[in-house]
Amino acid sequence: MTRSAAYVSNADSGTISVLHLTADGTVTPVQTVAAGAAVMPLAVGPDRRHLYAALRSRPYSVACFDIGSGTGRLTALATIPLADNMAYLATDRTGRYLLAASYPGDVVSVNPIGPDGVVRPDPVEVLSTPPHAHSIVPDPTNRYVFATSLGGDAILQFRFDPETGRLTPNTPAFVVTEPGAGPRHLVFHPAGRLAFVANELDGTVSAFEFDSDTGCLTLLDTYTVLPDQGSKPWTAELRLTPDGHHLYASDRHTNTLATFRINPHPATLTPLGHTPTEPCPRGFAIAPTGHHLLAAGQDSNALTVYSIDPPTGTLTPLARHPLGRNPNWVEIIPLS
User: Fold this and answer.
1) pLDDT for 264
2) Cross-referenced Gene3D superfamilies, in alphabetical order (predicted)?
């Protein structure tokens, strides 16, 4: 039976929950790993051999783990200082660099990763950003990097040198969003021609066309994530199904997951409805098969497993599982 490993960071417990997810949606806890105080954003290397967890209490650092082949169990390797309190982690597409964005520090950074999977302590880049950098993501070609500035209502555009890890502002250096939108997280469509941004403060998701020749984004349209116009927005995460057919976004005030169908020609989103979920759903992820979604509730200390109907994107709750305190980030990888 096909299995995946899911990782959930529990900020107030200082732990990472390791879970097994089977093809029928069964979730089994297999390990609870001490990571450190205020463990929050997670990132998995592209070869799925290493997991990185940002520790958002002093001293600000990243915990590096080995991922057991076939089991998904974590073995601690090292905890390495970072330039600031990081709200988001990602690796470049080769796994040789750790990218990080600091919401309180207004910076992005790039640190080398050694062949052993351990992040090196001396960053090759620490760059100032407009207020509240909230995510940093390489494009599918690994030639460009994008960082959102929630307080600056901008998406920063960088050229990326995968040999040195250096970032250079692109032309233009940023794309503006609607005033007060608060761009938070960004994901690329599997086909590489589209990108989507969750806007935390106005409760929307924006669709962008991506030009891989220039490394620039062009706004196509923006859609509400909220179930009704009177809702107070606090939008958090967004994820795509692996086939690129559906997009999901979570909102923490309405405790819902919004579902959209992605229409490639023309590139638009069709809203398909809202699913009630765990209280304060800051983090969720979709299984590599595209058949299940796992949503964690910061206020419930629990996770709900949903099945995804591939043709319609409909979410059906299957089971609920307890977690540590303040679960906030979910990552899922296939197990060989």
Assistant:
1) 85
2) YVTN repeat-like/Quinoprotein amine dehydrogenase
Closest CA to 80 of 112, 108, 107: 112
pTM of the model: 0.98
- Per-residue model confidence (pLDDT) at position 160: 98
The token duo for 167 is 């970032």
Residues 269 and 320 in one domain: no
In a shared domain, residues 219 and 186: yes
- Domain boundary among the residues 255, 280, 305 is at 280
Segments of the chain with pLDDT less than 50: none
The tens digit of pLDDT for each residue in 291-326 reads: 999 999 999 999 999 999 999 999 999 999 999 999
Residue that terminates a domain, selected from 262, 280, 298: 280
Mark whether 19 and 52 lie in a shared domain: no
Instruction: Give the domain range for residue 303.
Output: 1-34+281-335
Strand order in the sheet with 97-102: 88-91, 97-102, 107-112, 125-128
Helices (H) and strands (E) in the chain, counts: 0, 28
Q: Which two tokens stand for residue 30?
A: 């297999």
Residue 45 and residue 122: Cα distance in Å, rounded? 19
CATH of the domain at 88: 2.130.10.10
| pLDDT at 267 (0 to 100) | 87
Q: Which one-letter DSSP state was computed for residue 72? A: -
| Same domain, yes or no: 296 and 155 | no
